[in-house]
User: Which sequence fits this backbone?
């Protein structure tokens, strides 16, 4: 199959996911294909945004990369090449050496991810000691460094305090610092700003940006907010019902989306810059039942361009040129977001 | 516009902080501190604020779930706080409430029909025959198939559940609908459907609404007027277009800059907040001067000392900020 996205230059590639499939076994022999045959590449120092509605398999993708999918889920196949090594073939011990050291994960909820009985200093220390023995002083120095990286300059005051003494936004910053303690090559942020307010969200994204600039870390950001991905990422990966629908450099995707689902998503986002209010064009219908996905394109039922083929045959993710990939039988070649005054740029 | 539906005058809600063996009051949390606004018939007013600014407490006071410390609430010109208990109960029946958490606000073992009929029952409509018709009507109004009446909440999707919650608020024919973040938990495509529904209702039903949200882009779709709330105060109040084109208060500007958007992405604008690092001050210990001075980049000496007055900069556009005086002089 030549649908896999191959990188132009191999040195440049940090992570390559090929035909990844993660399934969940449910009682009564039901199988949920939460992630079904997705492929993408992430280059060094770049930001990849994964966007999709709830239940589309975004979080399962990130968990699959770290191999922390919980029962009854399992990785059914595919390859995850991190720096050229297939993570799925590594032993659990070798995998543990990667987790937190070379690949870090930031969770959505900064409240529940801390132990309320441990000080922030102890949290950072624990994150360090898991991988490396070191003196208290070295760890303390490193802790202060990473705190500075996320914009916390008075680290000395932060370390002896407990999680409950900070606001949610501040806790999320410290969590990012904790994830950065070994300068990982890959940082996966799973909805890092969803439960936070607007200004705090902007501050967290700014902190992630600073981290990226300071250490050259690649970031995968998972979100359902189109605004966040369009401002933060270099490439965008659109997921629908466990499938990759479109994968493309950001600007191209935003200006001329090819997959009808991407078009529908962009059209239904309320715009801050709209000159006058208009009816939003929402996508009709609801996402499909994941236990009984249709044979054809999973989006066919809600798609205004769907033809007979779409209901029968599942489209493959095809290279359409310029580093863009689209899984559609009839990709939209002419569509421009500016045409409909959806965006006035 | 016409008649005033809901008017609030200098509304305050303070919580005492008690400590020690004798539960002595050692301080006060100024959660809602002097809010005034007026919602006219057929108008949608949006209240924007970040978490912890007192939005929800304000709604709870308006709904009568908590008693205000001081201030007056007028519903259709009648001061609610002076009414007897029984009369007050009746006035509250004119308020339709839409909660944020749709699954949590419906009884899981009641059918949609029972949920909607209960709302009617509570306002004293106990005629079974007309109830059936009313349920059908309201379900059609919010774009649901009347056959859904026999389903349980769990059998509906998120967007459909949100429609049922809206139907429940509308079925009692409320004078005004209070909506607490009605779309923030929904996915984009569903959010668009629900926002369109609100727009339809505005056109067809002359809906008056107080719409609490934190997303400026969402509010742009449906609000006629916008109130910007910060630490229990309204810092800026303006007609919807004014806020987006001619925001005066530094906090409003920060909110506009910090809101992510697709157009900003295309133009390669990065996130830049322009706030002083730190947190919102403790509502128990608000700054002496302007509430926003601790985080404002443009704060002057005067801002730390003196709390700015509410000023009208153009018709219907009110701002609380000392910078306005600077501009004038």
Assistant:
């Amino acid at each position: 199959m030549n649908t896999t996205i191959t990188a132009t230059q191999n040195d440049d590639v940090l992570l390559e996911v090929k035909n990844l499939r993660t399934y969940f076994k449910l009682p009564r022999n039901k199988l949920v294909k939460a992630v079904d045959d997705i492929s993408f590449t992430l280059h060094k120092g770049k930001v990849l945004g994964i966007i999709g509605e709830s239940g589309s398999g975004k979080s399962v993708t990130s968990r699959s990369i770290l191999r922390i999918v919980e029962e009854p889920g399992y990785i059914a196949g595919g390859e995850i090449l991190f720096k050229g090594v297939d993570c799925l073939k590594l032993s659990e011990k070798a995998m543990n050496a990667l987790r937190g050291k070379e690949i870090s994960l930031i969770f959505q909820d900064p409240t529940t991810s801390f132990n309320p009985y441990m000080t922030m200093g102890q949290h950072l220390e624990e994150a360090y000691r898991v991988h490396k023995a070191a003196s208290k002083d070295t760890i303390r120095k490193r802790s202060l460094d990473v705190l500075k990286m996320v914009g916390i300059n008075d680290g000395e005051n932060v370390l002896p305090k407990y999680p409950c003494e900070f606001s949610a936004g501040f806790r999320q910053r410290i969590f990012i610092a904790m994830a950065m303690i070994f300068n990982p090559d890959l940082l996966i942020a799973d909805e890092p700003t969803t439960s936070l307010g607007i200004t705090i969200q902007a501050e967290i994204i700014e902190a992630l940006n600073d981290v990226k600039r300071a250490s050259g870390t690649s970031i995968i950001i998972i979100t359902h907010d189109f605004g966040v991905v369009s401002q933060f990422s270099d490439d965008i990966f659109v997921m629908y019902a466990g499938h990759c629908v479109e994968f493309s450099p950001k600007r191209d995707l935003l200006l001329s989306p090819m997959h009808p689902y991407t078009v529908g998503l962009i059209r239904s986002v309320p715009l801050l810059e709209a000159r006058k209010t208009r009816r939003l064009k929402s996508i009709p219908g609801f996402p499909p039942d994941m236990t009984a996905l249709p044979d054809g394109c999973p989006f066919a039922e809600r798609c205004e361009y769907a033809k007979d083929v779409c209901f029968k045959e599942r489209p493959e993710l095809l290279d359409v040129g310029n580093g863009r990939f689209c899984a559609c039988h009839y990709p939209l070649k002419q569509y421009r977001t500016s045409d409909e005054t959806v965006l006035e740029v | 516009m016409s008649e005033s539906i809901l008017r609030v005058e200098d509304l305050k809600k303070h919580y005492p902080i008690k400590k020690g063996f004798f539960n002595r009051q050692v301080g006060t949390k100024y959660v809602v501190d002097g809010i005034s606004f007026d919602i006219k018939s057929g108008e949608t007013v949006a209240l924007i604020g970040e978490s912890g600014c007192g939005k929800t407490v304000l709604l709870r006071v308006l709904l009568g779930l908590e008693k205000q410390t001081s201030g007056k609430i007028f519903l259709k010109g009648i001061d609610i706080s002076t009414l007897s208990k029984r009369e007050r109960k009746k006035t509250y029946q004119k308020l339709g409430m839409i909660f944020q958490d749709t699954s949590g606000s419906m009884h899981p073992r009641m059918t949609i029909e029972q949920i909607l009929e209960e709302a009617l029952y509570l306002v004293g409509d106990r005629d079974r025959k007309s109830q059936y018709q009313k349920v059908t009507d309201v379900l059609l109004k919010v774009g649901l198939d009347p056959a859904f009446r026999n389903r349980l909440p769990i059998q509906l999707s998120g967007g459909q559940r949100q429609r049922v919650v809206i139907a429940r608020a509308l079925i009692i024919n409320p004078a005004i609908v209070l909506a607490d973040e009605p779309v923030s938990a929904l996915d984009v495509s569903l959010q668009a459907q629900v926002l369109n529904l609100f727009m339809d209702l505005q056109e067809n039903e002359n809906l008056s609404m107080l719409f609490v949200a934190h997303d400026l882009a969402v509010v742009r779709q449906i609000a006629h007027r916008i109130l910007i709330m910060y630490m229990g105060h309204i810092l800026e109040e303006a007609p919807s277009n004014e806020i987006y084109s001619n925001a005066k208060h530094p906090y409003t500007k920060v909110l506009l800059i910090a809101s992510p958007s697709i157009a900003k992405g295309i133009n390669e604008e990065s996130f830049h907040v322009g706030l002083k690092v730190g947190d919102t001050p403790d509502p128990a210990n608000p700054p002496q001067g302007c509430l926003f001075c601790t985080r404002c980049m443009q704060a002057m000496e005067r801002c730390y000392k003196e709390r700015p007055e509410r000023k009208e900069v153009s018709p219907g556009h009110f701002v609380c900020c000392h910078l306005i005086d600077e501009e004038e002089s």
Notes: Chain B touches chain A through 47 residues (CB under 8 Å). The CA atoms of residues 132 and 278 of chain B lie 55 Å apart.
